Amino acid sequence: MYIVMIASECAPVAKVGGLADVVYGLTRELEVRGNDVEIILPKYNCMRYDHIYGLEQVYDDLWVPYYNRKVHCSVYFGFVHGRKCFFIDPHFEKNFFNRGIFYGSDDDPERFAFFCRAAMEYMFQSGKNPDIIHCHDWQTGLVPVLLYEIYQQQGMTHPRVCYTLHNMKHQGTAGEYVLRETGLNRAEYFYHPDRMLDTFNPFAVNLMKAGIVYSNFVTTVSPRYSEEIKYSAQGNGLGHTLYVHGDKIGGVLNGVDYEVWNPETDIHIPYNYGAKDLDVKYGNKEVLRHRLLLRQDYKPIIAYIGRLDSQKGVDLIRHAIFYALEHNCQFVLLGSSPDHDINYHFWHLKHHLNDHPDCHLEIGFSEELAHLIYAGADMIVVPSLFEPCGLTQLIAMKYGTVPIVRETGGLADTVFDADYSDKPYDERNGYVFNDYSREGLESAMHRAIELWYAHPDYFRGLIVNGMNCDYSWNHPGGHYRNIYEHILDR
């Protein structure tokens, strides 16, 4: 099967969040299964070019419609750790992708609408006719619209579109200019509640909604999230659209790249280990303490790794720090926030706790340190307000670090409570709380800490259960292959 991924991110060259990991990991799994997969990305000037092998210009005569003119673009090709990637580079006074950032510009809808048209124009002009076009999030929501409203009439009738929703909080809304920019025009046609009209703004089109309406199948990044967005406020205004198109929506849990996240082979940690030699893990705990100037003591280390924003539950993360310190634990945090006020708050907290021998807050992000924290911590908190999938808890389990999570989205699909789950005991792998509240978080943390101190053998059993879970891309790869075959047969 010939598959083209169109996305705004791909790890490790253009990574902001989990989307990048999904594009890379799923592509590799599909290739292992014998499919021919290519990825089309913008050519950002802030990419990690050191991770691209053999980058060369392969197409220099791409003219992309833009309002009443055409913009000259070049296309580059290179291998990203073996993945075949094409990068679109517009020669354009607006410098859409030469700004030193991936997202965050006021004209992001215009930038990525142009990218959608450029990706489709490149496939059309170069004669690419894939079986499946797989698009991701609002940045590529216009791709199926362009395919079925423009390019199908020009002979591109074979491809079917799979569209993945990674986070419905960000939907991409824009004015009529996006229709004129991409040549779709016909505002009266697209400004319709059954097509692209935004739920909250009668003068805006919604790019994520466009992807849902026009694609052949829609996936979310966990089964639980696919239900939550249909029947709760997590649909962020698109609940009716999701209901109408419910027969083509399904959840596929993300996988973890075990070539990158594997304590047995991880080059970023000093002591490699697995479930059968678990005691070796605690050498990493000593190294982590030494590096972060924590005292060596008989205490569990509780960690948080990730973004600091409202979705991730910043108020509960802060509460977890003090609860851990008050209950004879150490706490390590690695993260930062795109929100200036949240970042300032945690910097202030860092200075307040700077001399505490049992706490270290690292405001920023370091891939190397993240690996060491996963390997050295005993538990990790993920108290998300909502979580489409979540990779933190999956990685933590692989490293023998017991997750403490809120029951939402992918967290509920992957972490099964040590005391209250209906799963068999050998499948229970963490602690879960339901209500988004301090009391809920404390109840789970209390049970986890108590087990660590009072029943270390049982705690070790939880660790091993988590390490034995298979959250690789093997199962999701099979599910996506079935989805592709399903929509090709329709």
Summarize the structure.
The protein has 490 residues and is α/β, with parallel strands linked by helices.
Walk across the major sheet and give the strand order: 3-4-5-2-1-6-7-10-11
Question: What is the CATH C level class of the largest domain, in words?
Answer: Alpha Beta
The name CATH uses for the topology of the largest domain is Rossmann fold
How many beta-strand elements?
Answer: 17
Under the CATH scheme, the architecture of the largest domain is 3-Layer(aba) Sandwich
Radius of gyration: 23 Å
Unreliable segments of 5+ consecutive residues: none
Instruction: Count structural domains.
Output: 2
What is the overall silhouette? globular
Distance between the termini: 16 Å
Overall mean pLDDT: 96
Name of the CATH superfamily of the largest domain: Glycogen Phosphorylase B
Percentage of helical residues? 25-40%
Count, helices: 17
* Derived structural class: alpha/beta
* % residues in beta strands: 15-25%
The major β-sheet equals: 9 strands, mixed
Can you characterise this structure?
Helices cover 37% and strands 20% of the residues. It is of the alpha/beta class. The protein is globular. It has helices spanning 18-32, 108-125, 142-151, 177-182, 187-190, 207-214, 223-231, 239-244, 281-292, 314-326, 340-352, 367-376, 392-398, 409-414, 438-454, 456-468, 474-488; strands spanning 2-6, 36-42, 52-66, 69-80, 83-90, 132-136, 160-165, 173-174, 205-206, 217-220, 249-251, 301-305, 330-335, 359-363, 379-382, 402-406, 431-433. The strands form three sheets. A nine-stranded mixed sheet has the order 3-4-5-2-1-6-7-10-11, sandwiched between helices. Helix 3 crosses helix 6.
